[in-house]
Design a protein that fits this description.
The chain is α/β, with parallel strands linked by helices and about 325 residues long. It contains 14 helices and ten strands. Helix 2 crosses helix 10 and helix 2 packs across helix 11. The longest helix has 20 residues.
């Protein structure tokens, strides 16, 4: 009789409908690219579904205000390119915070031509540099504080490489995994690349933002997303990235496989995603000391006022637990 009851219970369980997955929208800060690969890989490989989530990636683009997307409820979770987004939310008293950082190094670079006397950031002091409007209140403040750059050096950057290619004395901004490759492909010349992160710039990148309400009321959903995304990034970087790449190219028709392959190679070469704390704590790692260092630097540069409660910009509740590290080859 007892055995029959167990059999009946098993049959009823098997016949029961599967529990509905929680729908989530996740926004990126730009058009689909390899720098978002781990998130697309998590969709393609079913990692989100494994964690009970039905995630839709909402692709960003020019003009995307990433922190405002999640603050306004347009997305449930949102990627932003740097620590500024979370600290600015604190400054504006908006309850949005970072829950993971998938890039330990900001991929921001300055690019120069070889043999022109611009072999280091220090040598660029006083020389014209093409940067975007958004950079003025971002990494430019770091360059002013550390290397003595001034606003008189600023030349507008309209995301075209033509001015740089036409002028051997030119210096422009870029991402280490993108513009240097495009410049070399178009000109045949390998440019000099100056990674700000290797020159004291402590900005996190590829941060995941959530509202404080979501972190407080639905921590299990946030944790599920972070765990699945972490699996996605380990799989993308150290496994076969083809499934994620297929989704990237489907979303962004202008993206080429050649560009994707180069971006993955460069991200690994420079430890953009996996270096520093992530080597021992797992991808997505953050630290209080790193946040304080960045806040102190940018406060000294005049971006933030002393006394800002920078602790409100992030939580370590979902990271630093070595999750997924077994997926990384020994």
């Amino acid at each position: 009789m007892i055995a029959a009851r167990f059999i009946l219970a098993a049959l009823l369980l098997a016949a029961a409908p599967a529990m509905a997955e929680t729908k989530l929208s996740f926004g990126t800060d730009w058009l689909a690219e390899a720098e978002h690969g781990g998130f697309y890989q998590a969709v393609a490989m079913g990692f989100y579904k494994k964690h009970g989530l039905d995630v839709t990636i909402r692709m960003g683009g020019p003009g995307t205000n990433a922190p405002q997307m999640v603050a306004a409820g347009v997305t449930d979770l949102q990627m932003t390119s740097g620590s500024f987004g979370a600290l600015n939310m604190v400054q504006q008293d908006v309850p949005v915070l970072a829950v993971a950082a998938y890039f330990q190094k900001d991929p921001q670079v300055l690019i120069s031509h070889p043999g022109t006397g611009n072999d280091s950031l220090a040598e660029m002091k006083g020389k014209p540099i093409m940067i975007s409007a958004g950079a003025r209140s971002g990494y430019w403040l770091f360059l002013k504080a550390k290397f003595g750059f001034s606003d008189t050096q600023i030349k507008p950057y309209n995301f075209s490489m033509a001015p740089f290619l036409a002028d051997k004395s030119a210096i422009q901004q870029g991402f280490i995994s993108s513009e240097p490759f495009q410049i070399e492909r178009q000109s045949g010349e390998k440019p000099l690349v100056h990674l700000l992160a290797d020159n004291g710039y402590a900005n996190y990148s590829n941060l995941v933002l959530a509202t404080r309400k979501m972190v407080t009321e639905k921590p299990e959903i946030v944790r599920a997303f972070i765990e699945a995304s972490t699996e996605g990034w380990y799989s993308y970087l150290y496994g076969d990235p083809a499934p994620g790449n297929a989704l990237i190219r489907a979303a962004n028709k202008d993206m080429t496989q050649e560009t994707i392959d180069n971006s993955i190679k460069v991200m690994k070469q420079y430890g953009i995603a996996d270096s520093g704390d992530s080597l021992t704590l797992g991808l997505g790692a953050m630290s209080e000391a790193r946040w304080k260092s960045f806040y102190d630097t940018m406060t000294e540069a005049g971006l933030y006022k002393p006394g800002l409660d920078w602790h409100r910009a992030f939580t370590l509740d979902f990271v630093n637990v070595k999750y997924g590290m077994e997926m990384k080859p020994k």
